[in-house]
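Reviewer has doubts. Consider these tokens.
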Amino acid sequence: MATTLTSKGQVTIPKPVRDLLGLKAGSAVTFELSQAGEVVVRSVARRPRSRFAKLRGRATVKLGTDELLALTRGS
């Protein structure tokens, strides 16, 4: 599979390679030089989402400090 280098030094990774590596727009990749002088493209494994990630966000209910303290203290 051949591709062309742009004037900005960019190349398009052919679709069969993107599919094989599971690459989507915004995916991170690394380029490594093997001892044989070949360039190896690898998909960078993303860190798993924190178990708390789905709990992050913004409150949709507006409560005052006293009301929040009452809720957390169970009174």
User: Anything to note?
Assistant: The two ends are 68 Å apart (CA to CA).
